[in-house]
Specification:
alpha+beta, elongated, Chorismate lyase, 7 helices, Arc Repressor Mutant, subunit A, 10 strands, 2 domains, 247 residues
Length: 247
């Protein structure tokens, strides 16, 4: 079923101090941020907008590019322009992605892609402070918000702490670790960026080579014993890290 395309109705003022592209992007931004344009809403393309509003095509393109740069819409070749889900901005504290999403007003769901017990490789053993070859559980999950893919989460846990595969579909990993007697208390993480591989692009519904944010984390319990190694990738179009700084 073909989705209806939203066409902005706006009275453009050529006497206004604000450029025309700012007038257009400003109205669209308010509609998106207020929720009146829901995630997934398709917007008309720059050619149609320019013709209908009787403005130049570069002006229409600049209005849409402003919204792309703000992370409010995404433009995909062959798929058009659509509103993205509200950007997730996690606080700078040790927390699970599930909790971040719930606090942000989202409805997270989880698909467990893989759950396997295996011997720890030298690098994973070193991070978890275990002898090489010790049993660890490697978990791979796809996290979604409002039925839209957000992140691929790969985690390595000491086998004696690992929750069951079934429990991970509906429960927060950190809550399950607490029940196993391991309270996540602190962590060390590295944030970066790279391009999506074909497999990641397929899972995240992004083009191959799309920008991804990466987060590699080691979480520690109250005794500073490592209890989780996380290797996570996020869709940069709908996720960002927001850190508050003071001087």
């Amino acid at each position: 079923m073909r989705r209806e395309t939203f066409k902005l109705k706006i009275d453009i003022s050529r006497k206004d101090a604000a450029p025309i592209h700012v007038q257009i992007s400003g109205v669209l931004r308010e509609l998106i941020e207020s929720g009146r344009l829901a995630p997934g809403t398709r917007l008309e393309d720059e050619v149609s907008m320019a013709r209908r509003l009787q403005i130049s095509r570069p002006t229409a393109r600049k209005a849409l590019e402003t919204l792309v740069n703000l992370g409010l819409i995404v433009r995909r070749r062959g798929a058009g322009t659509e509103v993205v889900a509200r950007r997730v901005e996690p606080p700078l504290v040790l927390t699970s992605l599930y909790d971040e999403l719930v606090r942000g007003g989202h409805s997270p769901t989880t698909s467990v892609l893989d759950w396997v017990e295996e011997p720890a490789t030298p690098s994973i053993a070193q991070l978890l402070r275990l002898p090489e070859g010790s049993p660890v559980v490697h978990i791979q999950r796809l996290r979604l918000i409002n039925s839209r893919p957000l992140a691929i989460l790969r985690d390595y846990l000491p086998a004696h702490l690992a929750p069951s595969r079934a429990s991970l579909t509906s429960r927060n990993l950190y809550d399950l670790l607490r029940e196993a007697g391991a309270e996540p208390r602190s962590g060390s993480q590295q944030i970066g960026a790279r391009l999506a591989t074909p497999a990641e692009a397929r899972l995240l519904n992004e083009p191959v080579g799309a920008a991804l944010l990466t987060m590699n984390r080691v979480a520690f319990d109250v005794a500073r014993q490592p209890i989780e190694v996380g290797i996570h990738v996020y869709r940069a179009s709908i996720y960002s890290f927001n850190h508050q700084l003071t001087r």
